[in-house]
Specification:
By secondary structure, the chain is mostly helical. 78% of the residues lie in helices and 0% in strands. The longest helix is centred in the N-terminal third of the chain and has 25 residues.
Length: 211
Amino acid sequence: MPDALHTSLKSKPSGTTEKGMERVHAILSVARAIFATEGYAGLSMRKVASQAGISLSNVQHYYQSKDLLIEAVLLMTMNTFQEKLDHITAAKGKLSRIEQLNSAIDMFLEELNDPLTHGLFFELWALAARNAFASTLMDTMILRERKAIYKLIRGMHPDVSDDEYMLRAVLIVAQVEGLMLFRYHKHRQKTEMQAVHAALKKNIIQLATTA
C-alpha cells in the first residue's frame, strides 16, 4: 500500500512525511467510498475533508481538484492490484504458470465481490461515456489490466504469436470487466455466480493454453 499511495501523489511537488501519508490514506479511503456510493456528483472536496476529519485546505494541499483526487483513487486501486499480481508472479518455482493465472483471476473476481471496488469501477465506466477525463482514466486502467494479463499468458502455447496473445488478453479483460454488471444484479443466486466464475476461469485457461 505505501508504494500505491506514493504513486497517487504524483501531482504533488513536495515530499510527504509519514504523518502526511496517513492523511493521504484517510483522504483516499473516504474519497473512494463516496465516489463508489454517491458517484461523481456526490463527491466534493469539502465532503471528503469533513468525513476524513481534516480541513479542506489539507485535502487541497495533496489534491488540488476533484478530478485529481479521483485519479489518485484509481491509481491507488490499480497499484494495489498490481502489487497483488506481482506477489503472485513472484512465486515462480512454487506455482505453475496455470496456477499463477488461476490465482490472478481469483484475485480479480474477489475484488469484484467488494461493493466499494465494484461501485468505483461502475461509476467510472458510467462517467467515461460522457467525460473525457474519466474516459482517459478508464483507458489507462484497461491498458494496465491487458498488459498484466498478457504477461501472465504470453508463451503458454508455443504456436501462439505474441500478437495473438495480446488479442486474447483483450478478450480476457473484457470478460472480467463485463462481470461487474452481471455480478451485482440483485436477483443472481450465489450458486449461479459460482458457476459463472468457474466457466470464466475455464474459458480463460483455454484462451491461454490452446492454439
